[in-house]
């Protein structure tokens, strides 16, 4: 039974990972979170994640992954790069190998704290073509980590087949809709809550929320 087990959530303080945190708190006896400092352009992300963990009474771990900004220069780690997404190409916000490394280090941490369950908010529906958000990748890495570390890890991806509207629905079902809307940081420009409204992350988040609220309103009147 999961209620008797411990889990680690890969956590950024954004909409998706915070939804996963609320999901994990319903599923597991004990939950800890791990946030990575990889040179992201907005340090508010780290403080936002730490603040949410404190508010929810969850142990917070911060790991230094600054080498990623050296290996994979991109618009998430470089202040002098504009965020662009050309048709048919990966957005320049893509950080090469990020989810691979984050999940691998999360597994090392999880084993050290006596957990075998790892939760990540990756999603194949709205993944913008990111190869390390695919279900096949996560399943493959799960097998690799178990072989590499002789441990029985289970990587959970509660959002894998959900679009942003369905992710908002899940947040609502978890009783966390307002909290996630007001307290999380998804915006590439570092604006907490509804964000700047202009960057790709904010537009995707807002479109999903509006679609879900329309569906919810129709359900309430039917």
Automatic annotation (TrEMBL):
Its EC number is 6.3.4.20. Its cofactor is Zn(2+). ATP binds at residues 11-21. Belongs to the QueC family. It comes from Paenibacillus woosongensis. Zn(2+) binds at residues 187, 196, 199, 202. It catalyses: 7-carboxy-7-carbaguanine + NH4(+) + 2 ATP = 7-cyano-7-carbaguanine + 2 AMP + 2 diphosphate + 2 H(+). This is 7-cyano-7-deazaguanine synthase. It holds the Pfam family QueC. One of its GO terms (molecular function) is ATP binding. Homodimer. Pathway: Purine metabolism; 7-cyano-7-deazaguanine biosynthesis. It is an enzyme of class 6 (ligase). HAMAP family: QueC. It comes from the Bacteria. Binds 1 zinc ion per subunit. Keywords: ATP-binding, Ligase, Metal-binding, Nucleotide-binding, Queuosine biosynthesis, Zinc. Catalyzes the ATP-dependent conversion of 7-carboxy-7-deazaguanine (CDG) to 7-cyano-7-deazaguanine (preQ(0)). Gene3D superfamilies: HUPs. GO terms for biological process: tRNA queuosine(34) biosynthetic process.
């Amino acid at each position: 039974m999961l209620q008797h087990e411990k889990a680690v959530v890969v956590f950024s303080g954004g909409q998706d990972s915070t939804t996963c945190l609320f999901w994990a708190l319903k599923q597991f006896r004990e939950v800890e979170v791990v946030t990575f400092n990889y040179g992201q352009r907005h340090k508010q992300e780290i403080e936002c994640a730490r603040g949410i963990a404190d508010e929810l009474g969850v142990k917070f771990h911060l790991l230094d992954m600054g080498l990623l900004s050296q290996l994979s220069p991109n618009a998430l780690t470089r202040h002098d790069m504009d965020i662009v997404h050309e048709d048919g190409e990966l957005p320049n916000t893509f950080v090469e190998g990020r989810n691979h490394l984050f999940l691998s280090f999360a597994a090392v941490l999880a084993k050290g704290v006596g957990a075998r369950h790892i939760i990540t908010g990756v999603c194949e529906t709205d993944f913008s073509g990111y190869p390390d958000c695919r279900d096949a990748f996560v399943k493959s890495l799960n097998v690799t980590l178990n072989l590499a570390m002789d441990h029985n890890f289970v990587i959970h991806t509660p959002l894998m087949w959900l679009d942003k509207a369905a992710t908002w629905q899940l947040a609502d079902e978890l009783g966390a809709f307002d909290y996630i809307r007001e307290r999380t940081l998804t915006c590439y420009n570092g604006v907490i809550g509804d964000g700047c409204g202009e960057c790709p992350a904010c537009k995707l988040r807002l479109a999903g929320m509006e679609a879900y609220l329309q569906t919810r309103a129709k359900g309430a009147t039917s």
